């Protein structure tokens, strides 16, 4: 059985904790019944001992598997990870979503995507990256009485993600601690209006509007201060043809969206200016979690 989940970019500037989209880089796990428990790790995190000894995927998988199955079976887990850890590309959401989906799939129990999303919410209490991880595409989501309410839209092929991954990790938990406890009415109005305009721009496919809508007052500046070079990455991206350029999730990655025709030049300019960071172009993912029995 094989499950894969795409990377995500959450917040998209003003949409703190409510907007996110899926990117075509994935974490994949193959699970087979086996005589003994065993784990193989390839790609991102392969040299991280914590992922071998105390793997979040395996503990969530076990929680669900033991509730769903009366059998005591062992498995071999083969992980192939493309999503870097703690860089704001939704590595933890991918783990949560794939672990829950795998526990159901290995027992042959059908799990609707909406149910998967609501189960994932117990592990990540903001819906902005679990929703695109499950559904793919662009998503606006909020939580009401422990349920995710969302609207989803596919992102056309003529758009690309240009991604700058710094060489330093930022944990989401710590990055949330840098944010103020209170905001002014001006900042609240700024973000509500920009987030609404950005959502409308995605729905109407008015890509030029992203150049005006993608600004934020409530989280990026506080977080980016931890790595001030990110302000430079953002400025360079917007100057070199990005339609929008925002801190991806809680950082440290900077996400830009551009027309496919402009993406090569943008990638080249960023590589030249920031040779110590990993810069690449990716497609968007409009499918979300994939399960092959
Ligand atoms: N491939 C993985 N396998 C197991 N655990 C992972 C994996 N990727 C991420 N994690 C867990 O998620 C944590 C990172 O979560 P977080 O700081 O929210 O990063 P991100 O911004 O990438 O979602 C890691 O410290 C680890 O516990
Ligand atoms: N809205 C959250 C998103 C965190 O995304 P991640 O990819 O960094 O886990 C936040 O901004 O804290």
From TrEMBL:
PROSITE patterns named among the record's database cross-references: GHMP_KINASES_ATP (PS00627)
Key words of the record: Amino-acid biosynthesis, ATP-binding, Cytoplasm, Kinase, Nucleotide-binding, Threonine biosynthesis, Transferase
UniProt xrefs under InterPro entries: GHMP_kinase_C_dom (IPR013750), GHMP_kinase_C_sf (IPR036554), GHMP_kinase_N_dom (IPR006204), GHMP_knse_ATP-bd_CS (IPR006203), Homoserine_kinase (IPR000870), Ribosomal_Su5_D2-typ_SF (IPR020568), Ribsml_uS5_D2-typ_fold_subgr (IPR014721)
Pathway, per record: Amino-acid biosynthesis; L-threonine biosynthesis; L-threonine from L-aspartate: step 4/5
Gene Ontology annotations of biological process type: threonine biosynthetic process
Positions of ATP binding: 84-94
GO terms of molecular function: ATP binding; homoserine kinase activity
Gene Ontology terms: cellular component: cytoplasm
Family to which the UniProt record says this protein belongs: Belongs to the GHMP kinase family. Homoserine kinase subfamily.
Role noted for this protein: Catalyzes the ATP-dependent phosphorylation of L-homoserine to L-homoserine phosphate.
Record protein name field: Homoserine kinase
Organism of derivation: Arcobacter acticola
